[in-house]
Every structure is written in C-alpha cells, then in structure tokens.
Amino acid sequence: MSDHNHDHDHEGCNHDHEMEEEWIVLVDDEGTEYRYAFDRLIELDDKKYYILVPESQEDAEMEEAHVFRLDNDADGNEILVDIDDQEMVKIEEYLENEEDEWEEIEEEEE
C-alpha cells in the first residue's frame, strides 16, 4: 500500500463518492483488501498515475486520496504500484499548477 496521500476538499469535487457503485479493490502483501473509488487519471512524463479515494476516510472534512502508478508485472499484466517521493512531488506540482490555471480561467470569466 502507498504511504503517499493527496488531500483535497470537497468544494471543487465534481462527483459524489457516496453514490459510487464500482470499487477498485487493492490487496496488500498480507492479503488485506482496501476499497477505492476512482478519482482521476493523470498522464505525466509518459507514465499514468491513478488517484484513488479510499472507502474509509479518517477525516470527513478533508478527503484523503492515494496515488498509484500504472505499471506491468513480469507477465505483462497491468498493476498499480506505489510511487516514490520524487513522483509524488511531480504529481503535487502538477495538481497545484492545474488548480492555478483553473483559478486564472475563473478570474478571466468574471
């Protein structure tokens, strides 16, 4: 499982997590299952990153999300893997820049 989290508030969220019917189930090395709702896919540096929201949230005010990279195992099957700290920094910068761009667009429309 990933120790990397990306938190965002519900204000800009464009979907209802409570109405999600399909879950992505990830199993850790000890066989524990974790259910996630798909939030979004980010393509960055020729890699695909999935942002997933865990079913169980520790803080109802601030939504927790986990980031995984799409990779292939030895048999060529697609798998989600933990990301390293450098990848997390790139994802956070990407999301911050995207948020800044949206704020600029909103300001131009006013």
Structure description:
- With 110 residues, the chain is an alpha+beta fold.
- It has one domain.
- Helices cover 23% and strands 39% of the residues.
- The chain has one helix at 85-109, and strands at 5-8, 24-27, 33-44, 47-54, 63-72, 78-82.
- Strands 1, 2, 3, 4, 5 and 6 form a 6-stranded antiparallel β-sheet that branches.
Number of helices: 1
The count of strands amounts to 6
- How many domains? The number is 1
Q: For the report, how would you describe the main beta sheet?
A: 6 strands, antiparallel
End-to-end distance: 43 Å
Rg over CA atoms, rounded to whole Å, is: 15 Å
Please state the structural category.
alpha+beta
Name the descriptors.
110 residues; disordered N terminus; 23% helix; alpha+beta; 6-stranded antiparallel β-sheet
Summarize this, please?
This protein has 110 residues and is α+β, with helices and mostly antiparallel strands.
